[in-house]
Every structure is written in structure tokens, then in C-alpha cells.
Write a structure and sequence with these properties.
217 residues; alpha/beta; Nucleotidyltransferase, domain 5; 34% helix; two-stranded antiparallel sheet; globular
Length: 217
């Protein structure tokens, strides 16, 4: 099992969103005992109010990280777009776990941004999220805070390609937010990566999964 904490850092008009996703691989099925695709469980969503200073944001993320540690090996994946290194350094220090930063781009391919940073087309993040939704490999716990908000955002996110330009559109419909969706997309994008899957397979071989549906209340 592993836990990925996605953080979409708020800017002028948006709150900071935090989403905790547990990722596991189901027991192999007979007769071939082939490993099944990863499954994801959303245990926790949080929104830090608009206008909260970055020190308090980092403290809240650190509190969520501490709780997420009970789900297994944890990693923090943070939207670094327009935030700046001082904040991500502070966040990494307070969280005390492995962290990856992601800068959204409009490019065609992913690239490395320092040792622990990534420059990633928004399309890649949203495609990873869309895939796990369409293949029914994600569950949102009934007890998850802000569950209704997350479901509303998912229902109102625009996954389209403009006919005139051919450009992708991955944004909230007018009048809606996408903070939680983006935090979720960050977590799913990382959890679905081959490196993350390899870690999951190794952990699966040395420790059997116990109770996926823990109550986070």
C-alpha cells in the first residue's frame, strides 16, 4: 500500500486543496495469478481557506501528512506552478516526507525540473485521472470530508478538445472550481507512474494489505 497526498496550492482566487489517495494492488487472481491494475481510494479531502498565509497552509498539509502515514509509504506531490521555491522548501521541511513538485505546462511532453521537480503537460495529469475513472479503479470513501464538493467538481470539469484549434481543455465549467480535482489529478498521476507501481508491487510482496476502508473520522 502507498499513500499519495496531492496539493493544489491556492493562488489569488482559489483555496489550497489537499487530497489523500491510498493506492493498492488487489490480490492476484487464479488461475494465471496475474497482477491486477492498481486501485485508488480517496480517504481525505481538505480545503485551506482563501487568504491563509503560506506558513499556516504548510502546517495544515503537515497535519494531513501525519494522518496519511497510517495508510503506508507516503509521498507529497505539490503543484509548483507560480508558487516559488521558498514555499515548497518550507512545505517539504514541515511535511517531513518525500516530495515531488509539479509545474503545469502547455507543452507536449514531460521534463525534469531539478532533482525532485517535474514539468508536466496538464493533459497528462488529467488523462491519468480520466483513465482511472473510466476504468472504475477509483473510489471515494463515503466518510471523506468535502466528498460532495469533489464529486461536483468532477462532474463539471471540461475534458474537451476544441475543434477549431485542436487544443485540449481541462478546466472547470464557468461558475465552478477545480481545486480538489487538480489535487486529485496530481496524486493519481504520480501513483500511476511506473516507478510508483514498481514500489507498490515490492511492498505488496512483503506486506499483505489489511483494511483498505479505514475510517478517517
Amino acid at each position: 500500500m502507498s499513500a499519495t497526498i496531492g496539493v493544489d496550492v491556492g493562488q489569488v482566487h482559489d483555496a489550497t486543496a489537499i487530497v489523500v489517495v491510498e493506492t493498492y494492488r488487489p490480490e492476484p487472481e487464479p488461475p494465471a495469478f496475474k497482477y491486477l491494475e492498481l486501485r485508488h481510494v480517496v480517504h481525505w479531502c481538505d480545503k485551506v481557506p482563501l487568504g491563509t498565509n503560506y506558513v499556516d497552509v504548510a502546517d495544515e498539509v503537515a497535519r494531513v501528512v501525519k494522518r496519511a502515514a497510517s495508510l503506508g509509504h507516503a509521498i507529497l506531490v505539490v503543484d509548483n506552478t507560480g508558487v516559488g521555491r521558498p514555499f515548497t522548501d518550507l512545505l517539504g521541511h514541515k511535511a517531513g516526507i518525500s516530495m515531488r513538485t509539479v509545474t503545469f505546462t502547455s507543452g507536449e511532453s514531460e521534463s525534469q525540473d531539478g532533482t525532485y521537480g517535474h514539468r508536466v503537460p496538464k493533459r497528462d495529469l488529467m488523462t491519468a485521472l480520466r483513465l482511472v475513472i473510466e476504468t472504475h479503479r477509483i473510489t471515494v470513501m463515503p466518510t471523506c470530508p468535502f466528498r460532495a464538493d469533489l464529486m461536483t467538481e468532477l462532474q463539471n470539469i471540461d475534458f474537451t478538445i476544441a475543434e477549431r484549434t485542436g487544443h485540449d481543455r481541462y478546466e472547470a465549467a464557468p461558475g465552478f472550481h477545480d481545486d480538489l480535482v487538480m489535487a486529485l489529478a496530481l496524486a493519481i498521476w504520480w501513483a500511476e507512474r511506473p516507478s510508483a507501481a514498481a514500489l507498490d508491487a515490492w511492498m505488496h510482496s512483503v506486506r499483505r494489505r489489511t483494511d483498505v476502508h479505514r475510517d478517517w473520522r
